[in-house]
Structures are given as structure tokens and as C-alpha cells.
Design a protein that fits this description.
About 70% of the residues lie in helices and about 0% in strands. The chain is mostly helical. Helix 1 (about 5-15) runs parallel beside helix 3 (about 50-70) and helix 3 (about 50-70) packs across helix 4 (about 75-90). It has one domain (about 5-100).
């Protein structure tokens, strides 16, 4: 993955403005963005897996920002990350990049 492609993908994720979609559920976010994420996995995952993993971790960080903003008890980064990790462990098919193996941390 070239530096230009990484910038474009990250900019695309930033333009989703996930942290502002607190009225949605996690499954709604997955339905909204899975097609795009799966497309990146199909296109870049063939030859640039190491770079793609870094970009997918960035997507997880953006989902983590959403969790911290939506659920007030999970305001602390570690609590939010562990909660998201448990959700990912329970349902690995929710997001396309979780199926690919890029899961958040589990406590």
C-alpha cells in the first residue's frame, strides 16, 4: 500500500465522522461501513497485508472513539477498548476487518 493510498483510506475513514453517530448502534455502523472495509480488504489485502493491518487498526481506533462518546461509563480508553474487545470476541463477524483478524484488545 503506498503512502498516498494509506492517506486516502484514513481520510475516507475520518470523513465518516464515526464519533458523531452516537444515535446509531454498533450493528448499524457495521451495516453502513462493512462494504467499504471489505472492498479495501479485497483490494489491498492481496499484496499489502502488513500495511492494511495498520489501516484497519485505525478503523478500530475510530470505533473506539465512538464507544467512548456513546457509552458514558466507558469514557476511559482502556475500559472502552476491553468492552469493544469482548464484543469482538463474542461476534467476530460483525465488522469485515474483525473477520480478517484485526480485533481490538481483550482484557
Amino acid at each position: 500500500m503506498s503512502d498516498k493510498a494509506v492517506k486516502c483510506v484514513k481520510e475516507d475513514v475520518r470523513n465518516w465522522k464515526l464519533q458523531l453517530k452516537v444515535d446509531k448502534h454498533l450493528a448499524d455502523l457495521a451495516n453502513m461501513f462493512n462494504a467499504k472495509i471489505q472492498g479495501w480488504i479485497n483490494y489491498y489485502g492481496r499484496f499489502y497485508k502488513s500495511e492494511l493491518v495498520q489501516v484497519l487498526r485505525y478503523v478500530n481506533q475510530c470505533i473506539l472513539k465512538w464507544v467512548r462518546r456513546k457509552y458514558k461509563k466507558r469514557k476511559h480508553k482502556r475500559r472502552a477498548e476491553y468492552w469493544l474487545g469482548k464484543v469482538a470476541q463474542r461476534d467476530t463477524t460483525l465488522f469485515a476487518h474483525w473477520r480478517f483478524g484485526v480485533l481490538p484488545t481483550v482484557g
